[in-house]
Specification:
Shape: elongated
Largest sheet: 4 strands, antiparallel
GO cellular component, one term: kinetochore
Helix content: 10-25%
Organism: Serinus canaria (Island canary)
Pathway: Protein modification; protein ubiquitination
Number of strands: 30
CATH class of one domain: Mainly Beta
CATH superfamily of one domain: YVTN repeat-like/Quinoprotein amine dehydrogenase
Structural class: mainly beta
Strand order of the largest sheet: 3-30-29-28
Strand content: 25-35%
CATH architecture of one domain: 7 Propeller
Distance between the termini: 129 Å
CATH topology of one domain: Methylamine Dehydrogenase, Chain H
InterPro entries: Cdc20/Fizzy, WD40/YVTN_repeat-like_dom_sf, WD40_CDC20-Fz, WD40_repeat_dom_sf, WD40_rpt
Protein name: Cell division cycle protein 20 homolog
Radius of gyration: 43 Å
């Protein structure tokens, strides 16, 4: 025995601290030593199959690492041998069990946990919990009570602000539908389209007015002027959507019942074309080329109840606020006037605010639906700016350069945004975020300047009429389905404001 160990040391026998898996026992090694030199061992690569000879001899090969009387050194090239970790079989089985077992949803008592820890120490020689490398858990660990983290790490089960942000909504870059609008007048100062609460889109094409039912796609010709030289210069729906006001180039203001397709009234008080109209309950306001604004009470025979003289040139923008307190007017004299509500009676009226910052004609005027005292205005080719006003204080809240003629502005009722229609040079629609005034999207497709914008009653679709004789429908304010149902339910509960019959 001593002689064998001495000879093994002389021949450079490599001693291993740990047993090699699948290695022959010590008795077999001694027998192999005594039997003399044999064939060299074959190293099997883990990526390639070994080339084994089918020999009938059962004499085992020599111990790996020993070849004759020479010492075999460690291979210098990678892949010559494999790494054998020094881990017990019991630890590997325990690790496999911990990785594959299912989490127990039931909470364990402290006594049971102490028992399990004691069993693990007695059986394995170590604590199972301390041997875990990765700890998988459904909830983050909470900090101890009174713990102050100097690194300002937040221990919370809620999502961080960055991960909780919703992605921006999808805005189609192409129109949902394109309609022909032949012979639409290419006149910046006219207002030729309007969308009713009953889902009818009124379009003025030269001397005719057409109604397009968005729900059914039906087209109705409501009227045609008798004289060929007289054209339609403005259209506006009452809030309930059952009456349409029509302004003409012959200084008339007509009132039509769409259910009966019949003209109810023909009101003559202006002496020039009526380019813009706006409703406030039963008061219809009309702006003319002379710069005058007339209030018409459509319930009474003497309809002309007030005259507002604050512009020196044509009134091309006119809009009542949603609460009916103020009337905003924009004119070709670059002025924006804000008028108080009048309930009738003659006399002269003065505006509560007059804004003179625009350097071009102001046609685009729009009231914010969630801030009743906020007004947006847009200037023409010489100005090209969009301005946001506080009509109570008279302050200009923000200004943005649109780099093109501003023809129309619409506030969204579904988002804190508004859309503007433009002329040269892009002829595009631009969606703006409020109050940051950053661009959300640009919608292009028109080949000529946009004349007017109007919005569908559900607030999801914007219709644009352009000088290229097309109407394009853009679904740029699509609502979330859940919010849409809530809004429809709220709208169905509202009753009509007007209870008096129109004579």
């Amino acid at each position: 025995m001593a002689q064998f160990l001495f000879e093994a040391d002389l021949h450079g026998l490599l001693k291993l601290d740990t047993p090699i898996p699948n290695a022959p026992p010590a008795r077999w090694q001694r027998k192999a030593k005594e039997s003399g030199p044999g064939p060299s061992p074959v190293c099997v690569s883990p990526m390639k199959p070994a080339n084994r000879s089918h020999s009938s001899s059962k004499t085992p090969s020599k111990t790996p690492g020993k070849s004759g009387s020479k010492i075999q050194s460690t291979p210098t090239k990678a892949g010559g041998d494999r790494y054998i970790p020094n881990r017990s079989t019991m630890q590997m089985e325990m690790a496999n069990f911990l990785l594959t077992k299912e989490n127990d949803p039931a909470e364990e008592s402290p006594t049971k946990k102490e028992q399990q820890k004691a069993w693990a120490v007695n059986l394995n020689g170590f604590d199972v919990e301390e041997a875990k490398i990765l700890r998988l858990s459904g909830k983050p660990q909470n900090a101890p009570e009174g713990y102050q983290n100097n690194l300002k790490v937040l221990y919370s089960q809620k999502m961080t602000p960055g991960s909780s942000r919703k992605n921006s909504r999808y805005i189609p870059s192409m129109p949902d539908r394109i309609l022909d609008a032949p012979e639409i007048r290419n006149d910046y100062y006219l207002n030729l389209i309007d969308w009713s609460s009953q889902n009818f889109l009124a379009v003025a094409l030269d001397n005719s007015v057409y109604l397009w039912n968005h729900a059914t796609g039906e087209i109705i010709q409501l009227l045609q002027m008798e004289h060929p030289d007289v054209y339609i210069s403005s259209v506006s729906w009452i809030k309930e959507g059952n009456y349409l006001a029509v302004g003409t180039s012959s200084a008339e203001v007509q009132l039509w019942d769409i259910q009966q397709q019949k003209r109810l009234r023909n009101m003559t008080s202006h002496c020039a074309r009526v380019g813009t109209l706006s409703w406030n309950s039963y008061i219809l306001s009309s702006g003319a080329r002379t710069g005058h604004i007339h209030h018409h009470d459509v319930r009474v025979a003497e309809h002309h109840v007030a005259t507002l003289a604050g512009h020196t040139q044509e009134v091309c923008g006119l809009k009542w606020s949603l609460d009916g307190r103020y009337l905003a007017s924009g004119g070709n004299d670059n002025l924006v006037n804000v008028w108080p509500c009048t309930q009738g009676g003659g006399g002269d009226f003065a505006p509560v605010q007059t804004f003179t910052q625009h350097q071009g004609a102001v046609k685009a005027v729009a009231w914010c639906p969630w801030q009743m005292n906020v007004l947006a205005t847009g200037g023409g080719t010489s100005d090209r700016h969009i301005r946001i006003w506080n009509v109570c204080s008279g302050a200009c809240l923000s200004t943005v350069d649109a780099h093109s003629q501003v023809c129309s502005i619409l506030w969204s009722t579904n988002y804190k945004e508004f859309v503007s229609g433009h002329g040269f040079a892009q002829n595009q629609l631009v969606l703006w975020k409020y109050p940051t005034m950053t661009k959300v999207a640009e919608l292009q497709g028109h080949t000529a300047r946009i004349l007017n914008l109007t919005m569908s009653p559900d607030g999801t679709t914007v219709a644009s009429a352009a000088a290229d004789e097309t109407l394009r429908l853009w679904r740029c304010f699509e609502m979330d389905p859940i919010k849409k149902k809530e809004k429809e339910k709220a709208n169905s509960a509202k009753s009509s404001i007007i209870h008096q019959s129109i004579r």
